[in-house]
Amino acid sequence: MPKPKCIDVPRAEAIARLNDHLRKTGTGGSVMSTQNLRRVTGFDATVLAAALANYGGFDADNDPHGERDFGDLTLWGYDLIWKIDYYDKSLTYGSHDPANPNVTRRVLTVMLASDW
Predict the structure, then answer these.
(1) Domain range summary for the chain, segments of one domain joined by +
(2) Cα angle 104-105-111, degrees, rounded to a multiple of 5
(3) What's the pTM?
(4) Which of 60, 64, 75, 93 has the highest Cβ tally under 10 A?
């Protein structure tokens, strides 16, 4: 029986899949919200997690590299932005290979757009 062919996934798609996993499940990295966001009247971490998991507003403006690492949404009457950054495992330096989960720690941060 022949061996199955390996299908190479383009680098940006590999990164996007890892980012989607973090955004949709809250696992595979850390999800952080800023203090100002947590102070918003009505803030609910469960609602925020669901909004991130269901986010589908990627386009050429907010996702030019196809990595699905940035987005914007509105909750509780506020415009929010979120961004995924890539660090080494010790969270000291940027990751040299964001497509490799063995050397990368992802951090998704959500903040008020006005804090940007």
Answers:
(1) 30-115
(2) 135
(3) 0.89
(4) 75
